Amino acid sequence: MTAPLISIRNLCVDYITDAGDVRACNNVSFDLAPGEVFGLAGESGCGKSTVAFSLMRLHKPPAFITGGQVIFNGEDILQYSDQRMQSFRWSEMSMVFQSAMNALNPVLTMEEQFCDVIMRHTDMTREHARRRAEGLLEIVDIHPSRLTDYPHQFSGGMRQRLVIAIALALNPKMIIMDEPTTALDVVVQREILQKIYALKEEFGFSILFITHDLSLMVEFSDRIGIMYSGELIEIAPSKQILESPYHPYTKGLGSSFPPLTGPKTKLTGIPGNPLNLLDIPQGCRFQARCDRVHEACTRVPTTLRQIEPSRFSNCHLYGEPIAHTKL
Question: What sign results for the dihedral spanned by CA atoms 106, 111, 114, 116?
């Protein structure tokens, strides 16, 4: 079996607030193999973006990484100095941020923005950085002559491709894509995802793909992890997690959007509201909304359990807790 590019183990992130400490990411663990697309899905506020920012160590107070390891190529990046982390970002791991179209500086040309990233992390001259930027534009199907344009002179889909090109600037081994198709219509969304996949096949980087759109993720990802209230509750190959989910929350997500074929059926949402992270119950975090809750769910904390060789769930209905299994 191929060694993972990155292994996240028992990652914990807390937000320190006046009302109390909020554990937004609780013992999250998963692996990402070279060239793999791993999807991270869940409703708003479940901790997806918190995980992403933790891998890049971009959190600022009141957020703090309070536990766990992030092993990248055999080294724990949580132990890196700030200087080492500065060189690690973009060269080893880069990120396409949520609302990426608004991440571009409106008062700088694209040449200035590309050259800033490239020259900050390499010893390239301005001329070499410009040539690299022109090549990156061609990679994402934008004419190099547009390099002197400002962000507002590009369409939404083109700006999205520009942000992806910046993420590719230093040939990273892994790219985090946090809601990369937000605010795009479905036609442009499809074009962007096709371009991302083609670039992944060409350059071989891994992708952590984050979205709340489970149907979109199933089409794009190799494996999917489902998050709920700061915990990773299920991991499975993408097709299986939609066709035969184990966790009741995953089943609820799958039944909340209509099928493209077959008879019309009434959609059923998940009852109740997301958990208040200042008031965590004993036992399973999903117990108040679950239609299969039993006595153990109300008193025994949950942890990931291996159900099948490539499938994991933290539901008490299945399996035994795992220790050092590849996730």
Answer: negative
What is the distance between the alpha carbons of residues 186 and 55, in angstroms, rounded to a whole number? 29
CA nearest neighbour of 274 among 320, 228, 325:
228
Q: Indicate the class that CATH gives domain 1-35+43-84+221-256+268-327.
A: alpha beta
Assessment of whether the complete model's pTM goes beyond 0.90 = yes
Q: How far apart are CA 116 and CA 135, in angstroms?
A: 16
CA–CA gap between residue 247 and residue 203 (Å, rounded): 35
- Plot region of 106 (φ>0 → left; ψ -120 to 50 → alpha; else → beta): alpha
User: DSSP 3-state assignment of 110?
Assistant: helix
Indicate the SS3 state at residue 49: helix
Q: Which two tokens stand for residue 97?
A: 């941020």
Distances in Å between the Cα of 124 and the Cα atoms of 105, 134, 147, 170 are 22, 14, 18, 11
Ranges of each domain in the chain? 1-35+43-84+221-256+268-327
Residue range 97-113, pLDDT digits in tens: 877 667 899 999 999 99
Could you give the C-alpha distances from 318 to 270, 283, 302, 305, 308, in angstroms and in order? 21, 15, 11, 7, 10
Smallest Cα–Cα separation from 139: which of 119, 176, 156, 114? 114
- CA proximity to 5, closest of 174, 192, 156: 174
pLDDT tens digits along 55-112: 999 999 999 999 999 999 999 999 999 999 999 999 999 999 877 667 899 999 999 9
Q: What is the DSSP letter of 106?
A: T
Q: Where are the beta strands (DSSP E) in 33-119?
A: 37-41, 63-72, 75-76, 93-96
